[in-house]
Amino acid sequence: MRNISDGALLFFCFFFIYGIFINSHNQNAYTLQHAGIEALVERGTLYVDGSATSQLKTIGDVFNHNGHLYAAKQPGQFFLGAIIYSILHFLGVTYKNNFLLTSSLVTWFTSGLMTSLVVVMIYRLSVFLTKGKKIGFLISIFYGLGTMAFPYSGVTHHDVYGTFFIFASFYFLMVNHHSNPFHKIIYPILAGAAAGFSIFLSILPLFIVFAEILYLLSFKRWKHIVLFFVACVISFSPLLIYNYYAFGNPLLPANIAGNFNDTYPAFSFGNIVKKIGFYFLSPNTSILVFSPITAFSFLGILIFPKQYMREKLFLLLQFLFLFSYLVMMTTVGHCQYGPRYLIPTLPFLSLGLSGYWMGSNTN
């Protein structure tokens, strides 16, 4: 499962492509993310009001708490983006001085970089599953250029960040469980850390974590299970700390503090039918329209050979668990480039394409 030269080539190609396609429309449309980043670096605050940058003075998805405006989002995106922006700010590149350049660079070195790394991980797992480098390249290209991961790589967005970390978590688990000899305990630690941190970035990976836990338990390697859970709890703790300092309660997330009840799960048969139509049938929003390769992914997963039964069940369950939550919500999020709530499941579905070439030896 190691091929550094091929992986590096793939990474730089996609990183370059994603950088080229970053555009001003997305930077001006997704200002909330940059507002949180700027607030942390320039003012050291968790609230997003008080910006001197004109593009960041009027932003959506915020609520008033104790006289300040807070983002109704998981906060991890702001802290990761702040790492890049702090470097740019030190170099004199700021949102106020040149908003488009600064926001584009922040986007490129976060969403663009993370999506490029996901492409590489898909390549390496696909090569392992199919034993074919050409097939691995093909599947990774299908994901990187043939799904809505492509346009969203040009957006500084929490769901894009969360997708990288939850897929990295599964990548570490799968590499670990198929290593021979089986001894690399660092992998379950990395997997747990990535899984817990993904929830700091976006709530959507939480439901994929549930499927991941079942995948982990199926191997019955208890030491690794303990390491995974400990690392997961530790990496999840920044969210609790943020909630405490921002809202006075570690168990009070932003969407509940702001009473964004359209994200609360609630059973409604009519809503479920409507959401199924939104995600699969409507030509304006269907995942099959915006990421048509997924039409072949589910069948590919179903024809995985018996030796990969655990992976087959995980790939199916991760979609089922996440989709079950999505059809319970009244909101569907924005759909500029497709149903973005399905972004976290796309790399997993792309792996399903391996099923068509299992056992081949195309090198």
Unreliable stretches (pLDDT < 50, length at least 5) are none
Distance between the termini: 13 Å
Radius of gyration: 20 Å
Report the sheet-strand fraction: under 5%
Number of helices: 17
User: Based on the structure, what is the oligomeric state of the protein chains?
Assistant: single chain
* Main sheet specs: 2 strands, antiparallel
Number of strands: 2
Helical percentage: 55-70%
Structure write-up:
63% of the residues lie in helices and 2% in strands. The chain has 17 helices and two strands. It has a two-stranded antiparallel sheet with strand order 1-2. The longest helix has 32 residues, at 99-130. The two termini are 13 Å apart.
Give a quick rundown of the structure.
With 363 residues, the chain is mainly α. The protein contains 17 helices and two strands.
Q: What is the secondary structure topology, with strand pairs?
A:
Blueprint: H1 4-20, H2 24-29, H3 31-43, E1 62-65, E2 68-71, H4 76-90, H5 99-130, H6 133-146, H7 149-152, H8 158-177, H9 186-201, H10 205-217, H11 222-247, H12 254-257, H13 269-281, H14 287-290, H15 294-302, H16 309-326, H17 346-351
Antiparallel strand pairs: 1-2
What key attributes describe this structure?
363 residues, mainly alpha, two-stranded antiparallel ribbon
